[in-house]
Amino acid sequence: MPDYDAILLEPARGFYDMADAALQEKIDRIVRNICTDPFVDLQVKFAFPFPPYTPILYVEDDLYAVYDFENNWTLAIWNIGTDENDSLAIPKPPGHR
Hints:
The protein is of the alpha+beta class. 24% of the residues lie in helices and 29% in strands.
């Protein structure tokens, strides 16, 4: 199975940039996991209907990521957050299809 590339869109990029080194390492590992197998597995990755889009919600411990397919080889990560500091608001990035 081929690996996918990932791009961090705002607000995911801003969350990553503000995170401490330990949290960045955890996010890096999660992004690697998503890029290796981005498909819904009903264990940590779930379909997240957000009409008219259907992104995927990745949940691990208190950290989540919301992403979808930008194209056939790139994943767009819309949002990253934790239960502590973020509600699950996932605005569609400007210009994202």
